[in-house]
Amino acid sequence: MRGWTALLAVALVACGGGDKGKGEASSTSPTSSNPTSSNPTTGPTSSAVRPTYYGDVAPLLVERCGSCHVEGGIAPFSVHDADAASSWAAASLAAIEAGTMPPFFAETTEDCEPVAPFVDDPTLSASEVDLLREWVDAGAPVGNPAMAIPVTPKVLDHLEDPEEVLALQEPFTVDGTQDIYQCFRIPLPIDEDAWVTGLEVLPDNDLVVHHVLVWSDPDDESAGKAGPDGSYRCSGEPDIWPTELVAAWTPGGSPMRTPEGSGTPLHPGGSLVVNVHYHPTGTTTELDQTQVALDLTYDQPANYVTWYLVDIPFGAQVQPSASGESDFLIPGGASAHEETVSLYVPDYIPFTLPVFAITPHMHYLGTDMLVTVRKGSDPDDETCLIHTPGYRFDFQTSYVYDADREDLPTISGGDTVDVRCTYDNSMANPYIDAQLEAAGVSDPEAVGWGEDTGSEMCMAMVGLILPPIEITDLL
């Protein structure tokens, strides 16, 4: 039932933009054997070589990849720079063809046909991949900038001119070898009701910040828990009541923004509790003073939003495996192990709630997630919300439906949300070294459910649009 207490304004949007593309470059450095290392550039003969960066591929690269591959972004080069894009062309194409880039993993599959597409899906069409392949095969020429096709530059995605930027009251020291869940009380600087329409978590030290959850504390219960520095040790929740989840940040995430005409309520006299999961380096002492930027409106919106957390601590039940096992346990060495958790939507929820977004969450072993809704008691009436084969821990994106409200999938009281997670706990997993280090072991061992990085989770956050009522009023 506590899953219905989690309130979140909107999804964390994937890096990259565009309508239907799939074309960001790999983080792997180009090699000396790259045929583009002596590519043609501008000059009298370059106009005869097609396609070129300026004449053909720049609009595609910038539109599909330019939000991450931008100066100062998280990617290793900028596609806005002709020479850099050319130098990385072969590595980029290899990553695209391998399906590792861009980091947008929602797909239509045999198991899932979502009812609507997703916003900012950067998947490249076959003809766009062919264009990039032709460019690479030609030596990735830059071409003539005087003949460049106009391109609208991409910029880093931040909240513009947020109304408030709130910091942890004091820097927090992160050391040792064990994961830390620390909650930080931030009193709200408002004297009337307000609604969050945008929130950006600004991690101060990404060496140790694993993820961040921002919770509301309308009665300022955290004041009785916090020490002189404004913080207290907690679990994956803020350990207060009432509370609702306002926003979240995970690696690869961008600012959250509410759907048009909606917001997350805050009240004067209350606080925010910033719940930070720290994963120490194990060798250094680090400081962190993460900030939270807020866009607010003081006019009550027509709708509120909430996140329905399908997770074991919030009432989800582990379903028995094919062999009859009912415990959440991933055997050591297993390469395609499945676990399914299910959460029943209380039948006292009196609304049919549109689903506007989905956020999958697993750790290093997670490779695939399928989220479906069983409608009422009819086992054949099932809606697929999302399928993310190729899930990666380092790009945990929220997927926002690109549809009008009346065309969104819905969840009602009496429905059941099923989350099927697939894990690779073998040495073939490219993230196995990180998992072994987090777990403190040298070889793959059985892994159970847990919030620490060395354990695993199978959680789907389902974004719902509500009438203007706070979900805690129903509990």
User: What is the β-strand count?
Assistant: 24
Roughly what fraction of the amino acids lie in strands? Answer: 25-35%
The CATH architecture classification of the largest domain is: Sandwich
Radius of gyration: 23 Å
Helices and strands, in order, run as HHHHEEEEEEEEEEEEEEEEEEEEEEHEE
Contiguous low-pLDDT stretches (5 residues minimum) are 1-29, 31-47
Total number of helices = 5
Question: Which descriptor suits the 3D outline?
Answer: globular
Mean pLDDT: 87
Any idea how many domains?
3
CATH class of the largest domain: Mainly Beta
Helix/strand-derived category reads mainly beta
> What is the fold named in CATH at topology level of the largest domain?
Jelly Rolls
Sheet of most strands: 10 strands, mixed
Portion of residues in helices?
Answer: 10-25%
Task: Please report the distance between the alpha carbons of the first and last residues.
Answer: 8 Å
